[in-house]
Amino acid sequence: MKIRDIVNRDIVNLTNCEHEPIHIPGQIQPHGFLLGITLQWKIDFCSENVSDYFAISHTQMLGKDFAEVFGAGAQDEILAYTNGDEFRDAFPLEIELLGKLFQINIHKSNDIYVLEAELLFADREKLADAYKQTIQFVSQMNKTKSLKDLCALVAQGTREITGYDRVMIYRFDEQYNGEVFAEDCREDLEPFLGLHYPHTDIPAQARELYIRNQLRLIVDIDYKPVPIYTVDDKEGKNLDLSLSILRSTSPIHVEYLKNIGVGATLTISLIHRDRLWGLIACHHYSEKNISPEIRLAAKLQGQFITSQIDIRQSNDEYGNAQHTVLALEQLTSLDLPIVKESLEKISTAPQLLEIANASGVSIVSGNKIYKNGLTPTDDQILSLIEEIHNKKITEIFSTNKISDHFPELAEKVDFAGIIYHALGNNGHILWYRPETISEISWGGDPEKSIIIDNNGLHPRNSFNIWKQIVKNQSNPWKQYEINAAAQYAHTLHNQLILIMLSEEEEKYRNQSEILREANSELENINWISTHDLQEPLRKIQLITSKTLSELDGITTESISNSLERVSKSASRMSVLLEDILKYTRIKNTRDTLQKVNLDEILEATIKEMNETIAESNAVIESEKLPEVHAIQFLMRQLFANILQNSLKYASSDRIPKIKITASQEPVMIHHLYKVYCYWIRFSDNGIGFEPQYAESIFKIFTRLHRQEQYTGSGIGLALCKKIMQTVGGDIHAEGKPGEGVDIVIYFPCDPEDTLLPL
């Protein structure tokens, strides 16, 4: 029978060191021995050092039945133990083998049962003592609230239970760079608390083993590895030691530990949501082994942490999360009109920043960008959205390091973190965070974790603190911040849909109103054509016929009177035709709207009407008027018609007085399903009118008085109505008989207006 060792002698170099096959070293540590037994109870693997424990060598054991070497009773005990799965992970089997007491850990590796035996601890700590310490720890644990406090307590408790010189709670980030999150050590030792270590210190295959095997011991860092032998009956025969307690450690890792002066280690995995969250790393500066009871108690310490991570992180974040929830509730409860102008109020609401703890936010809807806080320029926002779309991101995206995703854009902007949500129909919302420059203290230069010389690969041997300045990234977004942003983005998406539907409804209503007005205008123009225009024509015809029939006996004075009456009728017809022409030329369009200074319009109008105002001795008072989005020549026509109307219907028993007041700042005004930002009121002390005529006076050719009493075509206020429709505004009148009239005009919100809270 041929026997060979299974020691892995593959050469490790810079290209494959991250894939070193540490799970099949073919060697163990010497503080115990190893047997590999087949399902038929044949000894198929055996460590060389069995002769240190028994008067039999590994070559004599290999290929024999287990019972032949150790007896049928020992085989029965092991068989019974392996059937009791619930005890196997917690407690090793205590058994006598060839007159010596051992503790045996057993696991299955493919089709081989791996038995790892250590001599039973003669002065081992009692389970009751470990239990007492654990109960004491639990009572103290309940007094902590934050995760950091809990980890500090675990570090202290683990050191008390195990007696190691240094105990660290080592936490990984997303890239598996580690940080010493908590520590308890001898007073004479240099603390490592707060130091960071690169992910290469614990490579991927080591992290994988830490997940599979949650407790690892190195009893003496200066140990000499013991080779494992097997019956050489097939090519490539090996033994997977992923779950082994005695497995020999990578020589690179051993050298790493020697470089920091460590003599023995205990490592306990902290696994959270099937991911290696961190480690409890215990260091001793001389040789050290601990009993199974203490190993179990230390392992429980790790489970205390992992069972509390979610709760403690929630406690740590509870205050901020509550603030975010409150901001989200306040934001979603805003009473907003279903109009685009409401986006201005949303964007300027402080809660929109607070829900994600962002420094800036922008909402893009159609061709308009609403911004608040520290935000990029409009062009940069549009470029960012385009870049996001180019990466096929259609709904949600977040990062605290935009340079990783959009390096060219990152060089031009002043932010490093974003949360992006698409809102449909070319709508987008983005939250921003600025770059946060931070300093990280590394335990040695992270770029030199592995070095190479003439003697091969070596881990770094300098662990002096190496400081790194980290740029181009913001504070990470918390999950509750991302969730709150997503919730509000959904709410805002619905708001935009309602606005779109409302705009369509408004458009339909306006079109219906325009059509109704047009029909009404056609009817009135038809009426005036058959009535008001014919009446002066009949007068002209009658006067001229009468004059012609009386030419022989008519006097010069009579001819002069007749011609004067013809002239008046022709003038009235001319005014009427001119008003009709003015009215029909006004179109319902807002394409040419621009900023108009109404103070200048009023001043010019009063100057033009100076003679008329002087003749009536009228007094006109005005406060400062706002700038609005309108059409300049129409505003002059509007003001002239309103002032002429007030002067025409002045009371005969008092001096005419017209007072003009206005809103000084933009404010949302709800009127007849529409929203406006500015109002102007013309108040006079004229004859007034009955309230039931408040709407009809704006209809074309409508008169409340006989032509003989008050001249005019009846188009003036109808013209005012059409002018306000043209600029997207509105007009209405309030009258009191014998007291006067208030004419109020409303102007739409300018795109640049910042709306005040409702």
Keywords:
32 strands; disordered C terminus; alpha+beta; six-stranded antiparallel beta sheet; 20 helices; Beta-Lactamase; 758 residues; Heat Shock Protein 90; eight-stranded antiparallel beta sheet
Can you give a write-up of this model?
Among the domains are: 3-119, PAS domain (Beta-Lactamase, 2-Layer Sandwich), CATH 3.30.450; 334-435 and 474-500, Beta-Lactamase (2-Layer Sandwich), CATH 3.30.450; 588-758, 2-Layer Sandwich (Heat Shock Protein 90). Helices cover 38% and strands 24% of the residues. The longest helix has 52 residues, at 479-530. Helix 15 (534-549) packs antiparallel against helix 16. It starts with a strand and ends in an 11-residue tail after the last strand. The chain is α+β, with helices and mostly antiparallel strands. The chain contains 20 helices and 32 strands. Strands 1, 2, 3, 4, 5, 6, 7 and 12 form an eight-stranded antiparallel beta sheet that branches. Strands 10-9-8-14-13-11 form a six-stranded antiparallel beta sheet.
